[in-house]
Design brief:
It is a single chain. The chain is α/β, with parallel strands linked by helices. It has one domain (2-263): TIM Barrel (Alpha-Beta Barrel). It is built from 11 helices and 9 strands. The protein has helices at residues 19-31, 51-67, 84-92, 118-127, 141-145, 149-155, 164-167, 173-184, 206-216, 218-234, 257-263, and strands at residues 2-6, 36-39, 42-43, 73-76, 79-81, 104-108, 131-135, 159-163, 190-192. It has a 6-stranded parallel sheet with strand order 3-5-6-7-8-9. Helix 3 links the parallel strand 5 and strand 6 (104-108). The longest helix has 17 residues, at 51-67. The two termini are 33 Å apart.
């Protein structure tokens, strides 16, 4: 399995607090069946995202886990917050924050002040060559109360990542319910751990994978935990996706999801 949202790097944000904890998280992830991890520190008003420092830490950690025989390949991404400065930096250097300097960008939106013009920002990012991935919408209080706001973004080509802990009920009942609502409609493209430690936010993906396989088919579970995140990690196009349910009910019948997406 491939984990594209993971706060593995020590003293970089509110994730791992030491190199030892980073190593412990890496061991736990590998034991759970995770083979690739995109290290995704926050970029917001509290945490400064400096690619050169992050790359140095990834290289150091990769050497250590390889020496220990931990079968885990590390890459770089970002938990990108939608601040004015970040948006400007991403416009000037589109791959500064993206996964392995490719096209895919993890985006965390505000909890309580989600602007109505957010779709326009996503569109500008797409014009810049980026593929926005909306992270854990099921945990966002505004979207929990107004889930239909996601429809516009999905129709415009924004992808969705849900947290594994939400699927298994470890992020609260509202998050669990919304996660399964999204999954049942096939509106989710990635599962990820959003791991921060080994206790309350551990790097575990297997239980969520198995639950999705049981409730929504093994093929969908494989897509969310292996095929799609591997494409993001390697910066390759996503393969065919399941037809989303109730996303285009007011549009003309007979057109495939990809035809409707490409028509805009």
């Amino acid at each position: 399995m491939i984990d594209i949202h993971h706060h593995l790097l020590w003293n970089q944000d509110d994730g791992a607090t030491s190199l030892d904890l980073s190593l412990e998280m890496a061991r736990l992830a590998a034991a759970d069946g995770i083979t690739h991890v995109a290290c995704t520190p926050h970029a917001n008003g509290h945490w400064n995202y400096v690619p050169e420092i992050i790359d140095e830490k990834i290289a150091q950690l990769q050497r250590l886990i390889t020496t220990e025989g931990i079968q885990l390949k590390l890459g770089r991404g970002c938990d990108f917050h939608m601040s004015y400065d970040n948006i400007q930096h991403a416009h000037e250097d589109p791959t500064r924050f993206s996964i392995n300097r490719g096209s895919y960008l993890l985006i965390e939106i505000p909890d309580f002040t989600v602007p109505r013009t957010l779709g326009e920002t996503f569109y500008q990012m797409q014009l810049d060559g980026l593929i926005p991935i909306l992270t854990h919408p099921e945990r966002n209080p505004t979207l929990q109360n107004e889930p239909d706001r996601i429809v516009e973004w999905l129709r415009a080509g924004v992808l969705v990542q849900v947290t594994a802990g939400s699927v298994t009920g470890h992020m609260g009942r509202k998050a669990e319910k919304m996660a399964h609502d999204l999954l049942s409609k096939r509106w989710v493209h990635f599962l990820a751990t959003d791991a921060h430690n080994v206790s309350s936010r551990p790097p575990k993906l297997r239980d969520a994978h198995n639950l999705v396989a049981q409730k929504y088919t093994p093929e969908y579970a494989h897509l969310l935990c292996v095929s799609n995140p591997l494409a993001a990690f390697n910066n390759t196009p996503l393969g065919p996706q399941p037809e989303p349910i109730d996303l285009y009910e007011d549009e003309e019948p007979g057109r495939s999801w990809w035809q409707r997406l490409l028509r805009r």
